[in-house]
Amino acid sequence: MPEVVVSIGPQHPALKEPVNFKVIADGEKIVRLELDLSYNHRGIEKAAEQRNFIRVLPLLERVCGICSHSHATVFSKGIEEIMGLSIPPRAQYIRTIIAELERMHSHLLWLGVAAHVIGFNTLFMWTWRDREAVQDTLEEMSGNRVHYGMNEIGGVRRDLTPAQVEAALARLPVLEERIKKYVEMVNSEETMLIRFRDVGKMSREEALKYGAVGPTARASGVDYDVRRDDPYLAYAEVPWNVITDTHGDVYGRTRVRVGELWESTQIVRYCLENLPAGPIRVDAPKTAPKGEILSRYEAPRGELAHFIRTNGTDKVERVDIRTPTLANWTSVAVCLVNQNIADIPVIVAAIDPCLSCTSRLTVVNRVDKVGR
Amino acid sequence: MTDPVFILLYIFIFPGFFFLISYGLFLAYLDRKIAARMQQRVGPPICQPLADLIKMLGKEVINPNGVDWRVFDAIPLIALAAVMTAFLYVPVLGYSPLAFQGDLVVVLYLMALPTIALFVLGWLSRNIFSAIGGIRAVTQLFIYEVPFFLALLTPAIMAGSWSISEIVVWQQHNLWIIFFQPIGFIVALIGLQAKLERTPFDIPEAETEIVAGPWTELTGRRLALMDLATDVSLVVGSALIAALFLGGPMLPWVLAPFWLNSIAGFALFLVKTLAVLLILSSIKVATGRIRIDQLNDIGWKYIASAAVVQVGIVLVINYLWVVP
Question: Is the confidence metric ipTM above 0.85 for this complex?
Answer without folding.
Answer: no
